[in-house]
């Protein structure tokens, strides 16, 4: 067993610094999303156990959704607000350093996300709320209350789309966006794998808590 731990430790120590930097940078985005969630009155009114479960289960999915707005397809990079110039544009190529097919999965998700939807902040914010209020997260206590809240955001999304697109197009767009929510789940599983593959000792405490990382 000690040999296995030693091997795992060695593997972790060879983590690419660029990838590690990206992983730790996501902690900034996740903090913002937690703050944003706390401003939603329905979320604030939920018991603390459910708040924690929803954030733990949904923060990376919300982060992915927010990141699609900042993604520059032409340059294959994210433009993010950061005081350090070299951190203000992150190339998607860094995902190629991760195990598995993270880069390909992410690229597919972006390329099949119509720019007019992914650049519409209203759509992205409502989709973030739909994602946040997912009643099937682990350790949820009041799933019925959460489902009710999620339904109200589904309704809001439909109403919003009806206000910006003609009838049939609005319905078609709604269905396609629901498909993106399903795809988001799959992409999220792949992204979580990246977090679990890095050395917990080199990761921000917030991320360790969210992903229940144990120090080796």
TrEMBL record:
Domain of life: Eukaryota
InterPro entries xrefs: NHR-like_dom_sf, Nucl_hrmn_rcpt_lig-bd, Nuclear_hormone_rcpt_NR1, Nuclear_hrmn_rcpt, ThyrH_rcpt
Family matches, as SUPFAM superfamilies: Nuclear receptor ligand-binding domain
Keywords of the record: DNA-binding, Metal-binding, Receptor, Transcription, Transcription regulation, Zinc, Zinc-finger
GO biological process, one term: positive regulation of transcription by RNA polymerase II
Gene3D superfamilies for the chain: Retinoid X Receptor
Keyword GTP-binding (UniProt): no
Gene Ontology molecular functions: nuclear receptor activity; RNA polymerase II cis-regulatory region sequence-specific DNA binding; zinc ion binding
Pfam family, one: Hormone_recep
NR LBD domain segment(s): 1-216
Assigned protein family: Belongs to the nuclear hormone receptor family. NR1 subfamily.
Family annotation (PANTHER family): NUCLEAR HORMONE RECEPTOR (PTHR24082), NUCLEAR HORMONE RECEPTOR HR96 (PTHR24082:SF283)
Record's protein name: NR LBD domain-containing protein
